[in-house]
Design a protein that fits this description.
Layout: E1 30-33, H1 34-44, E2 49-52, H2 59-65, E3 72-75, H3 79-93, E4 97-101, H4 105-108, H5 111-119, E5 124-130, H6 146-150, E6 156-159, H7 166-178, E7 184-190, H8 191-195, E8 197-200, H9 219-231, E9 235-239, H10 241-245, H11 249-259, E10 263-265, E11 280-282, H12 290-298, E12 301-305, H13 311-314, E13 325-330, E14 344-347, H14 350-368, H15 374-386, H16 401-412, E15 417-420, H17 424-432, E16 441-443, H18 453-463, E17 469-474, H19 475-481, H20 484-491, E18 496-501, H21 506-515, H22 535-541, E19 545-549, H23 552-564, E20 570-575
Parallel strand pairs: 2-3, 2-4, 4-5, 5-7, 6-7, 9-10, 9-12, 10-11, 12-13, 13-14, 15-16, 15-17, 17-18, 18-20, 19-20
Antiparallel strand pairs: 1-8
Length: 610
């Protein structure tokens, strides 16, 4: 795959004030500026929303964008928010999200959001302006080599130096972003290329000779996986975000119910399998449920689907699931055996893998009989009964953050969309809200980006205006991107924001409490005693409705009042205790056998130990 960066003889620049009108898709070629070709190409690929901010080098494109009746532009307050909003939009709709920025700082402000989308495999196309071609490499005003900067954090990027290449580049960018393992793609277009005229027609011929994502799995590998499944005594379906990306939740449910194999869903896969299903053991990992972590540790077969054996799941890799054989299915061959060697590697789309696996399991069962998992389920039910997920109320009588989040989930229900920032509130939102359907949980899983929740919720609301969208945020995260409430107010995107205000960088404080002898260095935010800022007043200043809740008796009523408001964003400042901690926990650098159900309480997994 090569970038469209070969200079050709440019077409003559359009006269001042001249606006050639491009032909509709599939029409006869007509003269158009590069900017007009860009807008028309976005329309042709089905883009409905662009999140962005105009600036000097992208300004030629913003002019024809004003005339588009198909593409809505959402004017954000910071480019990073544009990228997160595009990601939130993509995850809720299943389409590719689009963000736009000018050159230099506008483009570099997108980098964190692109890195975030790259880590979590979210299809995003970022379009940036660039200094005119004659100035590239001269350190001109607001020049930055954004292609070089984003090379490690994008699936691919393009520098377009010929306006005739714009339609093909946009078509390829959207195809690359959404196919195979999804991810972000950046298209950088110099200002003069946007202003030059060209012959526009659609569709363009795509030329991606080196890019051939594999969808269909190899039949022999699928049959071998089915054989291992039929022989296993302690199997676990280890489900990652790739199942959601493949829209394979229905196939997963059929396989699980057909085989009776327990399911764990990672932080990125919440909603891929219903939390209420009796086969579901919960979320594995550093703050996963004890049954999920224990099941993986004691399994003899892990069927890993669309997941990458992330360190937050495995803990110390050398001690992870020591007795388990591994079937690893993923659309990205680079992930297979990267961290844990796979006994049966399967490259393919999870939807197709699961469909073929179900057939192969039937055949294997006919030949060899079906394994008896009754003893395995006795052990799993024992762990479930001994180590249920729960929490204690703060001894000082302050409001429990877990209770707040639990009640939001119960009152807003499974049809709502929930986004979270990063930290304690993220883990509590993953633990105490029940996710019953795909596309209901958005979070920054791989990069762990503070400030993700509000713009991601904004993008989700733009993509699913009829669904209620809640941002579960911390007082630290919220202060990074709360300016987007103004965007939500002006653009008619009435999200709800629950600020879990514990006055601290909560997860940092928890680690300082556990591992740094309670030396709380620079983790007190001042949002409790000083009320700086006052979140309810801040919400009002940014065009929303502000509320505050400090007692358990008021939690339901304030949530219900927020749910009744649908014309403005709402912020609820939930003032909670500062010392609540996230449990269970596997400390960084330790193995999953060292999981603590609560402070100082380590579950004993083996029957002879229990």
């Amino acid at each position: 795959m090569t970038s469209a960066n070969t200079r050709q003889n440019p077409a003559p620049e359009a006269s001042p004030g001249q606006r050639p009108k491009p032909a509709p898709p599939n029409g006869a070629p007509v003269r158009a500026t590069g900017a007009q070709a860009l807008v028309r190409s976005l329309e042709a690929v089905g883009c409905e929303v662009v999140f962005g901010i105009p600036g000097g080098t992208i300004l030629p494109t913003y002019d024809p964008l004003l005339d588009s009746t198909k593409v809505r532009h959402v004017l954000v307050r910071h480019e990073q928010a544009a990228g997160h909003a595009a990601a939130g939009y993509a995850q809720v709709t299943g389409s590719t999200g689009v963000c736009m920025a000018t050159s230099g700082p506008g483009a570099t402000n997108l980098v964190t959001a692109l890195a975030d989308a790259h880590m979590d495999s979210v299809p995003v196309v970022a379009i940036t302006g660039q200094q005119s071609t004659g100035l590239i490499g001269t350190d001109a005003f607001q020049e930055a080599d954004i292609c070089g900067i984003t090379l490690p954090v994008t699936k691919h990027n393009f520098l377009v130096t010929d306006p005739a290449e714009i339609p093909r580049t946009i078509a390829e960018a959207f195809y690359i972003a959404s196919s195979g393992r999804p991810g972000p793609v950046l298209v950088d277009i110099p200002k003069d290329v946007q202003q030059l005229t060209m012959s526009f027609s659609w569709p363009p011929e795509q030329r991606l000779p080196g890019y051939r994502p594999v969808g269909k799995p190899h039949g022999k590998q699928v049959r071998e996986a089915a054989r291992l499944m039929s022989e296993a005594e302690r199997p676990v379906l280890y489900v990652g975000g790739g199942v959601l990306k493949a829209e394979a939740s229905a196939e997963l449910a059929r396989l699980a119910e057909h085989t009776g194999i327990p399911v764990v869903t990672t932080l990125m896969a919440r909603g891929a399998f219903p939390d209420s299903h009796p086969l579901h053991l919960g979320m594995p990992g550093m703050h996963g449920t004890v049954p999920a972590v224990a099941a993986m540790q004691r399994s003899d077969l892990l069927i890993a689907l669309g997941t990458r054996f992330d360190d937050r799941v495995t803990g110390q890799l050398s001690g992870f699931a020591p007795e388990a054989k591994v079937v690893h299915a993923d659309i990205d061959p680079a992930e297979i055996s990267k961290n844990r060697v796979a006994d049966v590697p399967i490259v393919g789309d999870c939807k197709e893998v699961l469909a073929e696996l179900l057939e192969a399991v039937d055949s294997a069962s006919t030949e060899r009989g079906r394994g008896d998992l009754s003893e395995w389920w006795e052990q799993l039910e024992d762990w479930r009964s001994r180590f249920p997920l729960g929490y204690d109320w703060p001894a000082d009588g302050t409001l429990s953050p877990e209770y707040v989040i639990e009640r939001i989930g119960q009152l807003a229900g499974p049809e709502a969309v929930y986004s979270a920032g990063v930290g304690q509130h993220q883990m509590w939102a993953a633990q105490f809200i029940e996710y019953q359907r795909p596309g209901s949980w958005l979070n920054s899983g791989g990069l762990g980006t503070m400030g993700y929740a509000v713009p991601a919720a904004m993008g989700a609301k733009a993509g699913a205006p009829d669904r209620q969208v809640w941002a579960i945020d911390g007082d630290g995260c919220f202060q990074m991107t709360n300016q987007e409430l103004a965007t939500c107010a002006i653009e008619g995107l009435p999200i709800k924001v629950a600020v879990i205000n514990n006055g601290n960088l909560g997860m940092v404080r928890q680690w300082q409490n556990l591992f740094y002898a309670e030396r709380y260095s620079q983790s007190d935010l001042g949002t409790h005693g000083h009320r700086i800022p006052d979140f309810s007043l801040l919400a009002e200043a940014l065009g929303g409705v502000g509320m505050r809740c400090e007692s358990a008796a008021d939690v339901d009523s304030v949530i219900e009042r927020a749910m009744e408001i649908d014309d403005r964003p709402v912020v609820i400042d939930f003032v909670v205790g500062k010392d609540a901690q996230v449990w269970p926990m596997v400390a960084a650098g330790t193995g999953n056998d060292e999981i603590m159900a609560a402070r100082g309480i380590r579950p004993l997994f083996d029957d002879d130990e229990g």
